[in-house]
């Protein structure tokens, strides 16, 4: 009966009330588990760890007095069973209609001393008509004894102090101002006295490329010497090769800014020395040193602000379907996400993701198992938070139609029970953006970049063998041809989205565009109102054609000529994904770093057939380029590290170890990988892991070899009867990690008595090396030949099929840059289009399919 009264079960007649003398005695067994929040403890008073229940919910919220995690009525029992924690603070906010005065109006306003919870008020309620009252009490499980608060006279002093501390603590997601909700980033200690080299470096507004590789995305500008280098790399080789971090380790220059994020309001700045995103108060001056005028990047070609330009206003109206009476939608699958301040990029992507059945099954379909086996702190578990978000969006629990007007008076006579519409993804955003230099900021972000970030998190936190992001994965075949010898090379890579260029030259209304441009310039010169926008109309077929056309390869090294030459590259689909994500490349930079957006209309098809882009592989009559790697220039410091790769275990680079461990590899395996690759960085160590991960002692602790630091001495350890000429596997791994073939490494080491430096010289002086049949036979008969097969990684997981697709969702962007503006999402559900605009979910009347930024297609049978 006591449990029934508290949890709304039949037969309950009220929770047990304790006599004054019994309270202290009742709490004695639980005193060791009651804690006073310390500095740094996060006290969750606003949101359940497993759901979006809050003190506003009908069942209130239960805060554990030991962990300070909060749980709704449906989930508090799970936490009690798992942890044995018995004492919880129950928080509940009551909403009642205000007492009317004699004239029928509400009584005069007065300070409400009954509100002590730091909660958002219900925007749907008129504060002049309703009043709030907060209630707190201790509840002791499993018998659900209740102790009303405050109760200073009868509670032990420690319990009173703990309760006061919990009630007065600030929410970990408390808003700082209307546009932000997270704590401000720290100011870097290097910003005030940052050294900038006077080396004449000037950064162009576009065309960036990593100075150490060919990557053109995720690039960071070092604010000391102006080097442009790629950022952190991920386990699937996406993101970057970590050259920006390597540059810091080599040179010690602490601060870098991400190219593409620079706006007048700031940019994403990272401190390698402090190992966190930071603020640079002198960023404008530091950028100006390299020719970047940050403070004028808000200006457009006519010097007007974004909000002053009529075409942009029109874009906002069209995409949000302003001026059209839109019918609100409620129920499962029609739940909105409240904007936390520039979080619409996250909301739009997550709405599209959880409209996909594979993601629904992987998370919401496994909800009981994921919740039951969640860690002790579920707020820091990706799968738990994904499941929580998916259930919040799909259950309909937080998307209910308003109560009929005739029932409102009857309800208000007793107590208002507000219907929660929309959920606030505070906990989810805090977790997925943690330690990310861009998404942890309060600025607007690129929805496409967040999509790839989310895919990376799904990959790293897969549930068993199930990986829902496989539905996006496909193989790209890249064909590179040497223009001088006509020889070709075919390679494959994994990708998750198709990037389509905007073929501006194919606009079908060029005459209108020319006339509009002339009229616009004349209006600007005479300070008259601008004419109505004429938007370029681009055929989708032209964008698809531009995607498939050959492109020049900068700095192409021809292995046939063993020299740099002209080369062209074409890309085709080696496999077609189950779900195809198409990004329209609308954003670029003009002169003086002014961000530009191609404001175009593209006739995106509902049915898309790309079967003609299927890769065909090597064709008859084509001759392959020789499989020879280009010469590698090894810096002296790197060569010194190579020569001394058998480092002291105490000198192992722990940052590289942790970077690998974050990908899910065993910690001891990561330590061995960094040790045996001579502290050359996480990327080289990752290659070592791929080679050795199938070995039975892969995860065993690091054991020291029985030989000295000289690489040439390794043969005496690894040698055995019949294998005295087999090179040490660790030295082979170092050479292969530099891009050389394993057989090249083995042959070079054998020819130089396993001396690493001489072996590298041997490779460079024998570019004509080819494996002969005797060598291959010898290797196959070798006792260690199984290493060759183990070195080949398992093929990528792809779900190949037809290249015929149907559009089911698209994300649109309004504004001049991905770093500003607003995102909305349209999804086709139950045969009709629905617009998701933050917390507002409505039936779409005119879905602007021609103005989208990202399009989601699902495969259909031909």
UniProtKB/TrEMBL annotation:
Where, subcellularly, is it found?
Cytoplasm
Q: Locate the USP domain: which residues?
A: 335-860
GO molecular-function terms, A-Z: BAT3 complex binding; cysteine-type deubiquitinase activity; cysteine-type endopeptidase activity; K48-linked deubiquitinase activity; proteasome binding; protein-folding chaperone binding; ubiquitin binding; ubiquitin protein ligase binding
Q: Which GO terms describe its cellular component?
A: cytoplasm
Q: What is its EC number?
A: 3.4.19.12
Q: What is its main location?
A: cytoplasm
User: In the UniProt entry, which residues are flagged as the active site?
Assistant: 344, 822
Q: Which protein family is named in the record? A: Belongs to the peptidase C19 family.
Which PANTHER family does the UniProt record give?
A: UBIQUITIN CARBOXYL-TERMINAL HYDROLASE, UBIQUITIN CARBOXYL-TERMINAL HYDROLASE 13
Q: What is this protein called?
A: Ubiquitin carboxyl-terminal hydrolase
